[in-house]
Design goal:
This protein has about 500 residues and is mainly beta. It contains two helices and 30 strands. The protein is rod-shaped.
């Protein structure tokens, strides 16, 4: 009789349970997954054949260096194109005469009518050893400085030196450029007179043009055609003005296979830790690249992959800390590479300055995947959901309502419910369940290792009734699951 009374007392609950159907849309739990860069490296424009894939830093730099070689003197000379050599031409490979004075013994002597052919002396100077870098160099101008003076009768005027240049070993020459009229004591003359910062002498030049094998300079006297050594050349020096692109770019590669195949990507963040900030804030762009076959131990400026679509642009600021790229384009690219037939499960990115060749020369260094500490390493944070299972309404309990089956306050036995999806199919394991008791905030249900394949959630029984319970979640794997809702006093 006592057993029957207890059953009757709990009967209304059992009768109500299958009838209380509360339909709702699925609620999908969101999962965040941090993917550390599988490979990373940076490339350097002015060191285009080198690889930097094993360092603890990644670099992004925007720099157009404007500089020059400084004034260089020749180390050797030879008779010029007229066939008449100057007297002691090697004396002009140094600079020994004090400005404002004369010392004929330290100068090369030139004439405009040198017997027997009565043509001017000419001398070709070479081996200036400019040592220009060859990568990403643009020649901006050429400046020649001549030190010397004139001798002879004062009635003679218009005495100058004329200069021409060759960048191919003398196979071709520029037109002549003249100094201003020579003074009677040693002075320095700049050719062209305005300076050579931007003057190319009418030629087309590369860094290779100024190698010792290629660059030559010819000197000839010009003025009244009389006999006698009237032109004294103390020294001749050359300065090459040039710019060099010194941009640097970072490449990152992520393996997307840990993202479940049935996931829906809802958000992505590319996170990199700034180790050394730029001197002024720069905008850095994240592009996807055309080829995923590059490796961190082989990629260089020369073989770097081309970029495709722009995914996001962010400002660096001028402080250390995390820099984050995000947005719909990055999210969609991750989804394409992971799930689309045209993708390959690999996301390759290039991080570069939005405006390269900046005169400021701004450099930012990031921690690489080789960093000694794990936390600062480049990370792709992917947020996704999975096909959702939810408690589509009140379900009949699998055990009878009664004290022996966990329905009495204080019972340690679980009350069992079968959770199904909106199609009526049983849910599977990996449900990130939320349990809500009455109007209280939902709490996460924890997986009980002692109950393999089962979720344990707690419901507090009050009086003779069970308060409202809602369970929502997402699928993570395919192991069958029985949901246990455990009662407590």
């Amino acid at each position: 009789m006592e057993r029957q009374r207890k059953l009757r007392r709990w009967l209304p609950v059992a009768m109500l349970a299958p009838a209380m159907v509360l339909l709702a849309a699925p609620v999908y739990a969101q999962v965040s997954l941090d993917l550390v860069a599988a490979e990373d490296s940076y490339v350097v424009q002015n060191d285009p054949g080198s690889n930097f894939g094993t360092t603890q830093e990644l670099h992004v730099r925007s720099c157009l260096l404007s500089t020059n070689t400084g004034l260089k003197s020749p180390a050797s000379c030879q008779t010029g194109t007229t066939g008449n050599p100057a007297s002691d031409p090697a004396r002009a490979t140094g600079d020994e005469v004090v400005l404002g004075s004369t010392n004929d013994a330290c100068c090369a002597w030139f004439r405009t009518r040198n017997p027997p052919s009565n043509v001017a002396d000419s001398e070709v100077y070479r081996d200036f050893s400019f040592n220009l870098p060859t990568a990403s160099v643009t020649i901006a101008g050429i400046e020649v400085r001549v030190s010397g003076y004139r001798t002879g009768p004062s009635r003679l005027t218009g005495l100058t030196f004329k200069i021409r240049l060759s960048g191919d070993g003398g196979a071709s020459w520029t037109g002549y450029r003249n100094t201003t009229e020579l003074e009677r004591t040693d002075a320095e003359y700049v050719v062209p007179a305005s300076g050579g910062t931007t003057d190319l002498w009418g030629g087309v030049w590369t860094a290779e043009s100024f190698s010792n094998a290629n660059f030559q300079l010819e000197v000839m006297p010009e003025g009244p055609a009389e006999t006698g050594e009237q032109w004294k050349l103390d020294s001749i020096r050359v300065k090459i003005c040039y710019t060099q692109n010194q941009n640097e770019r970072t490449f990152l590669k992520f393996d997307l296979s840990p993202i479940p195949g049935n996931a829906t990507v809802v958000g992505t963040e590319l996170r990199a830790t700034i180790k050394m900030p730029p001197i002024a804030s720069r905008d850095y762009q994240a592009h996807c690249v055309s080829d995923d076959t590059w490796t961190q131990t082989a990629v260089t400026w020369n073989n770097q992959p081309d970029i495709l679509s722009l995914l996001d642009t962010r400002a660096t600021g001028v402080a250390t800390g995390q820099m984050v790229w995000t947005g719909a384009a990055l999210r969609d690219q991750v989804a394409f590479e992971r799930f689309d037939a045209g993708g390959n499960g690999i996301l390759s990115l290039r991080i570069g300055d939005a405006e390269e060749d900046a005169p400021l020369g701004c450099l930012t260094s990031f921690c690489s995947s080789e960093s000694a500490e794990a936390a600062p390493r480049p990370v792709l944070r992917v947020s996704y959901t999975l096909p959702g299972f939810f408690f589509a309404g009140w379900r009949p309990p699998l055990n009878l309502p009664g004290p022996e089956d966990g329905w009495e306050s204080g019972s340690t036995k679980p009350v069992k419910f079968l959770v199904v999806d909106d199609a009526g199919n049983p849910a599977v394991s990996g449900v990130n369940a939320l349990v809500q008791i009455g109007a209280s905030a939902p709490v996460a249900a924890a997986l009980d290792d002692a109950q393999t394949g089962q979720w344990i959630a707690e419901i507090k029984l009050v009086g003779s009734g069970v308060q409202a319970v809602t369970i929502t979640g997402n699928v993570q794997n395919v192991t069958p699951l029985a949901i246990l809702v455990k009662s407590n006093p």
